[in-house]
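<instruction>
Derive structure tokens from the sequence
<data>
Labelled lines for chain and fold:
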Amino acid sequence: VYTMHWFDSMGGVPSAPADGRWEGDSLVFHQRSAMGHARYTYLFHSGGSYDFALDHSSDGVSYAPFVTCTYRRAF
């Protein structure tokens, strides 16, 4: 089990860190806060890049994309 602490300037502070587990090739975290449910997914690639997705849900069952991006090394 992995934990992740998420901090940003959007508002509510989670009462606990997100819990994560490997699901195939992805490291997936789940978290519940006053703003609803969040799912954070990291998919790592060779060469140091990775895809990140943040999905939101009001009920913890049906998730909608909130942010998706790919990170790459600049050097």
Q: What stands out?
A: The beta strands are 2-4, 18-23, 26-33, 36-44, 50-57, 64-71.
